[in-house]
Amino acid sequence: MNRFFAMLSRMKYIDRWGLMNNTKTENISEHCLETAILAHALVNIANIRLGEDLDTDRAAVIGMFHDAGEIITGDMPTPIKYFNPAIKDAYKAVEKVAQDRLISMLPEDLQEIYSPLISNEDEVLERYVKAADKLSALIKCIEEVRMGNNEFLKAKEATEQSLISMQLPALDIFMEECLPAYYLTLDELG
Asked: What's the pLDDT tens digit per position in 109-123?
């Protein structure tokens, strides 16, 4: 029995930002969709503006699956996940076990298609997906701060610095040209 897709549907039950007081909860299903959209955008910017030749669709699909293992592990808050190298390494090992478990739920003939998507085996696109992942976190922080939730101020500052330090030109372009719109109200966007 193929349980993989039924298991993936449970992404909507895993909330993110567990240590933070949220004005609106966000689950990993929502986050992965936004990450996929942002990864697609970043790779398009890289291709069109910077002369790269990367697979935009693959970047989006990797973004869709990038946190799939959290169905099994749950969302580990960033301050804990990166607290020290031992915890970071242990979490990466747990993450790999969770990813392998998910892949094992597929029939053998489909495993080779989904394995590189869930395990993020494309190093070049992984940089863009990681940037999109952090960009999604920054957008969440912006939204929370806009709603008056100062709980997210420090996370916003740290995430902005992390994004700047990535030194990814397509990301820099997105942050300069697109990110300001996330501070606008619906009326201002229209």
From this structure: 999 999 999 987 789
